[in-house]
Design a protein that fits this description.
Shape: globular
Strand content: 15-25%
Largest sheet: 5 strands, mixed
Strand order of the largest sheet: 3-2-4-1-5
């Protein structure tokens, strides 16, 4: 069983007029990254708030270099504005679904810190907004 110390929030880096389901991301990761295991995230949150499964939690993800072995990757659909610049494009439905999912993950992994991808790799603009840890301060380990 894996020891989970991080829950990492990502965005799929698509504009408002583009989609990115778990199936689409799986296809991209297989095609562009040549990953036989496909999607690197454990969960994808669609704009309508639907939570789609990616890799099973027991499986090591492929979403954050040097942190995959001990983390769960959560990706929301969006993260870019219409011009392709990083932005918090989460819908109200996504925010509610993300809160619910992170609460569930916190129950299973109470010692895991919730962070954004950019917190672990400052060169990244993912997840499109800052302060993930602050937004979920009430779910951080005590």
């Amino acid at each position: 069983m894996r020891t989970i110390t991080l829950i990492i929030v990502h965005c799929s880096a698509v504009r408002p007029d583009q989609t990115s389901s778990a199936a689409q991301i799986d296809s991209w990761h297989r095609r562009d990254n040549h990953w036989k295991l496909g999607i690197g995230y454990h969960y994808v949150i669609r704009r309508n708030g639907e939570i789609e499964p990616g890799r099973p939690e027991w499986m090591i993800g492929a979403h954050c270099l040097h942190h995959n072995a001990h983390s769960i990757g959560v990706c929301y659909e969006g993260g870019l504005d219409i011009r392709g610049h990083p932005a918090d494009t989460r819908t109200a439905e996504q925010k509610a679904a993300m809160r619910t999912l992170l609460e569930q993950l916190h129950q299973r992994y109470p010692r895991a810190l919730i962070v954004g991808h950019r917190d672990l790799n400052p060169a990244k603009k993912c997840p499109g907004y800052e302060n993930v840890a602050q937004e979920y301060a009430d779910l951080q380990p005590r």
